[in-house]
Amino acid sequence: MDLLSSFPTEDGSVTFWSQAYQESFHSSHGAKNEAEAKFVIPAKIAEKAKTQDQVNILDVCYGLGYNSAAAIAAVFALPETNSQLNIIGLENNLDVPQQAISQGLVDIWEPAIAQILAVAAKSQYAQSANVSLKLLIGDARNTVRQVPSQWADAIFLDPFSPPHCPQLWTVEFIKLLASCLKPDGYLVTYSASAAVRAAMLAAGLQFGSIAPVGRKSPSTIAAFAPTPLPPISDDEAAFLKTRAAIPYRDRTLAATALEILEARQAEQASSNLAPSSSLRKSRK
Prior knowledge:
It is a single chain. The protein is an alpha/beta fold. It has one domain (about 30-280): Rossmann fold. It has eleven helices and eleven strands. It has helices spanning about 30-40, 45-50, 65-75, 95-100, 110-125, 140-145, 170-180, 195-200, 235-240, 255-270, 275-280, and strands spanning about 5-10, 15-20, 25, 55-60, 85-90, 125, 130-135, 150-155, 180-190, 205-210, 220-225. It is globular.
């Protein structure tokens, strides 16, 4: 069982610090702001709700539920919409959303949204007039197989960082996510890792940069061609030609984090690509 402790952020919202992963669930800049700026806005949730009868979201690593809550809030804020918002959340540790509820952390959202999150945390399913939220508990490499093919208008990819949770950043897992994405859907994540972006390319996706929010590095948005995406910088493109871009692999979709990390390190050690350190030195 992971030991969770409160971690206040700069926008007044509170997230958790994970003892097991030695990371916070959100950046110190602001948990609520991050959910909105790095996930909901780039994925154009409100825009889709204005024009579609249904909007489907796959929330990978649901955690405290903030990304899903921000999506619900974006739809609720529309002056007029009959769009149905359907969310499937993948979460390995049900204790996380349950503690978020018991400690009142979701009360930053309006009561109707907090109630949806509370019911889902208790029963793994919540339904309101125009929102359904279903939680699938377990290893996301397995539970993602319950998501229908080409179902998602948006995928929020929000695991712990690649060095700490490589299982959910591999070529093989991202291919599974890509199979869930609609042809015009978006996959968004806070990570700008060259390895993650290379995995997206291997999964048949193209990607672009999301402007930095609360930190120096950008985030990433991916989609199938020919969906227009914002460009990446020359520096970002250069890192894709270094060993940093060697992706994480999990060919059985059952490897441990250590096995995935060691296999990538071995591949990097034998690679003819330049190390990313040489690129960083040349840019100083």
